[in-house]
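Notes from the pairing session

We agreed to fold both candidates in a single pass and log them together. This is the raw record for the first candidate, unedited. Please don't reformat it; downstream parsing expects exactly this layout.

Candidate A
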Amino acid sequence: MSIYFMEIIYLLIALAVCITVHEAAHAWVAFMLGDPTAKMEGRVSLNPLRHLDLFGTIMIFIAHFGWGKPVPFNYNNLKNPRRDAFLIAVAGPITNLLTAFLITILFKYVPLPGLIRELLRSIYALSIVLFLFNLVPIAPLDGSKFIGLIVPRSKEYWYQRFLAQGPIFLIVLIIADLLISEVTGFSFLGTYLQFGYDLITTVLMLGS
């Protein structure tokens, strides 16, 4: 089997694992906070087929970014909508970070076969990338819910418009970053992700 083929296999498995735990965490926390919407749709599950989006997966190979199926929740079922929406949102990235931490522990204390180590290395890398990328405060990324904690109630209409128009801003940001990268060789998103990856890896290695 060629190295390239194995890398594709590792990436597909890593996608299945990282997106599944990310989205399942959203669904589970929403259910724990009183909203059964995601549970009724079968999203409180570790079955990857419940969470993977075909087009979002394909985009990983085309544009080097992708997504899973968004987890639905109903604000009306939440006792404190802004706070609980934030908790639901942050559950996904935190789960990815915890996944990376657990893999660090395995690397340090458990002797693993080479193929397993390479697979875990792929899951580790993608977990951190998903954690960092989802912290970008633009909807529909999870980081957009951070803003809801600080926006005054009097600006609720503005905040809801910000969330609704977020996907457009995100696409523009990604396309602009790709174009700038092609012309200058510098990527803002790439630099942010690389810096964050190196920092988190350093902290995890020191703390494990």
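Candidate B (folded immediately after A)
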Amino acid sequence: MRRRGNLRAGSADVVVIGAGHSGLAMSHSLAARGIDHVVLERGVVANSWVNERWDSLRLLTPNWQSSLPGYRYSGADPDGYMSMPDVIDFIQGYARHTAAPVITNTEVISLQSDVAGYRMVTNQGQLRARAVVVASGAFNQPSVPAISKFIPAEIAQLTPREYRNPTQLDPGGVLVVGGSATGLQLADEIHASGRPVTLAVGEHVRMPRVYRGKDIQHWMHVVGLSDEHYRAIDDIERARRVPSPQLIGSNSGRMLDLNALQQAGVRLSGKLAAVRDGKLQFSGGLRNVCALADLKMNRLLERIDAWVSAHDAVAKATPAERFAPTAVDASPCLELDPKSAGITTVIWATGFRPDYSWLQLPVLDHKGRIRHDGGIVDPGLVVMGLPYLRRRKSSFIHGAEDDARDLSLHLAGHLDAAALRDQFRVGARGLPPTPCMLPGLAGRA
């Protein structure tokens, strides 16, 4: 594997941008088709996991589900959940296993169209390619709302990208904004450290860690929910914006939801709506968003129950169950003076977004999101690793294999068409056409 070096002006059939699990899965699929390619990584392999995650983070999926093309978890704890160091070892081990052609510490500064495809300017030089795979990640930049600028100056503000553990926080209370997986996990950890925590909750997805004796991901897989195709969804753009489920990777099977946090002593409020005169003002819709999350969870459980009954699997599963509705105070907090409440830190667990500032092509919508059809942006440009890219599981590690297979097949067709065009142009000039004008295509499966 090429680790680092000056990237002299050159070319490749395909350039993959990003050496996380999605980029490496695509590299494996391209190699299996005999397609010449290189993988550019701004830092090190699995860079986001190495440099941009908090210490206690674990995967939301069980170890048995951790797989990439030709590679899967083989440890002694298939029902456990990988820690951050485990994930780093897994992804970096995969890069070594596949001998992926990775060039690290190579940041793409700009990507532009070129007469023969695309041209990249990097901090190591320039590179041209017939096709490009954008696998730079869906979670590059924290999505911090504009309201953050009105938080009183004496209150520290952090994002999950900057947070590592509770010891870095100032003494005092903490407001965690965001009720999805990240917000719940941070609220839980920080409260356990002895600090009072308030959690501001907006739209969220409630989900049990274990249902009918099996991890919820088992049911998502066997029922077919994880493999639901993007073309089968009525409003795919809406589906791609659904928050991550309220789960925690815990061998205890613990269900981490709003009820569990309240029982531990975490205070709930509605969505942070405004800051006026230094006071925090919250939405009054907490009861409604919690009721909607409960409703959707129960619909999921009913779908699982129906599958169990239809497949004669009742004897193999524990009885169906339902969970207590989310408890909401009759008069939830609508306004809070952070000074009198002792709040010294706000953590914005309000999601992430990709960084496409280097993408100098007309492929972004008015909100800066890349436009694509199941990962295909243009014939020679595809994207990997985004939520619900081609399937519900697309953004998970185990979801990369199917997407890489589909999109590498698309790129193979694009490269074949480009080769035929080149042959035609050469033949039209009176020169004998050659069987293959692009390096690395000969012998491709």
